[in-house]
Each structure stands twice: as C-alpha cells, then as structure tokens.
Amino acid sequence: MCREQNRIIIISSLIILRNVRAVLRSGLSGSACVSRACVSTLLVLVLLTLAGPSNAQLSPSGSMRRSPADIVKRYVLLDQKGARLDASSFDTVMPYVEWKEEPAWGRIVVVQKTTVSEDYRQWEILNNLEVIIPVTFQVRGSVYLETASFVPEDRIEEVRFHVKVVGSYWRILSPVIPPHVGLRRMVSFARDAALHESDDTQRTVLTDLIESLRKAN
Question: Distance of CA 86 to CAs 91, 134, 156, 201, Å?
C-alpha cells in the first residue's frame, strides 16, 4: 500500500512539474503573460504534493513527504531546548542539517519566542525542491561563554533558512547560526553548571549569571 501511495505521489508531482515547465515555456515564447506569482504557486503545489498528508507523523529523518517548514520547526525547537549547547547532543539535530559538525561558539542567543513561517507566500521558492523559509526570533539577549555573562538586548531577529531536498530528505543548508536557546532552558543550563562547579569563584560567577537571566524573564 505504501509503495502504491508513493507511486501516485511521484506521478502527481511529475504531472504538476510538467505543467510548470509548460507555463514557463509559454511565458518565454511570448504566447502568454506569466507572472512570477503564478509560477511560484505552481512550484508550491509540487512542494505540497511531495509533502504528502498534513496529518502524517514527522519522521526524525526529515522525509521529503513532509513540508519543509516542519523540518525547520523541528530544528529550531531542538535548538531552543538546548540541543546545540554541547557537542554530545548535536546528534539530535543532525537529521535536519547538512553540516556535519558544530562550530565552537562563544555566544549563545537567548530567545523568548520563535515563529516559523508556514505560509508559503512568505517563502522564497527557488525551485520545486529548494526553498528559503523565514524564522522570527524574539531575542532577550546573549550569554557570552568566556565571561559567563548575560547582556540583555530585546530585539526581533529574522533568519532565512535555506532548505533543500538532499537524496530523499529535506535538509537545512544554511545559515549556521549560534545556538538560539530558550530563556528558561538557559537558566536551567546555568544552574546545572553551577551545581557541578567545584571552584568557588566560578560558582559565584554562574550564580550571578542565573540572577541576570531571571531578571530578563
């Protein structure tokens, strides 16, 4: 049954893609007036066809049968929960990204809220298997790891994630941004670090960091 459903989805996608190409050829030959919006809409139909049923369960591998926005949502949610705070937990986000290792970050962005655009009209559609999806972060400030200090900075940050089908899976190609961790998770992370810190001076620094973060809540 699954094979038959996959076959139908592939055939439907090819039919839509053929129609897209026909429209493009028609527009280029001058026999029809084709708007960028029309072409973009047709490309979105291909994306949504590939995505499959909207109520299907999201697989950890980022199946191309899901919406690319779902992959971005899963990635930023894991990031918000602290999955990129250390190298040992990077494996949890690897199924959604194309890079193989995380840079050594000196700064952690602390966020209050994250919004992934699910409206395809706000996406930049490069082709039927490649899109750019905007994500908005409500930033509260940054933690600098070298000094274990929090610098408050209330602002709205927009990041445009480049998502592409690689093999049979959606993958985030870029950008590779510093960890964007939720405020409560950052407090928990600092508290845990303080509990395991044996040096009194460093423990005091971490306690001050916790208090600074709590004030931003």
Answer: 10, 26, 25, 23
Residue 70 main-chain phi, psi, to 5 deg = -65, -35
**Calpha distance 128→47 (Å, rounded):** 6
Which amino acid appears at position 60 of this protein?
P
The band of 75, judged by pLDDT with boundaries at 50, 70 and 90, is very high
Q: The tokens of 23 are what?
A: 């429209």
User: What are 133's strand-pairing partners?
Assistant: 161
State pTM to two decimals: 0.73
Q: Could you tell me how many residues make up the chain?
A: 217
> In the numeric block, which tokens belong to residue 150?
């929090």
pLDDT at 5 over 50: no
Q: Which residues are registered as beta bridge partners of 138?
A: 113, 156
Sign of dihedral through CA atoms 133, 185, 208, 202? negative
Return the domain boundaries, the chain. 55-216
Half-sphere exposure of 126 (CA within 13 A, CB side): 11
Domain at 55-216, CATH class: alpha beta
Residue 97 structure tokens: 């990204």
Task: Report pLDDT for 61.
Answer: 56
Task: Answer yes or no: is pLDDT of 11 > 70.
Answer: no
| d(C-alpha 115, C-alpha 217), whole Å | 19
**What is the rounded CA–CA span in Å between residue 87 and residue 97?**
15
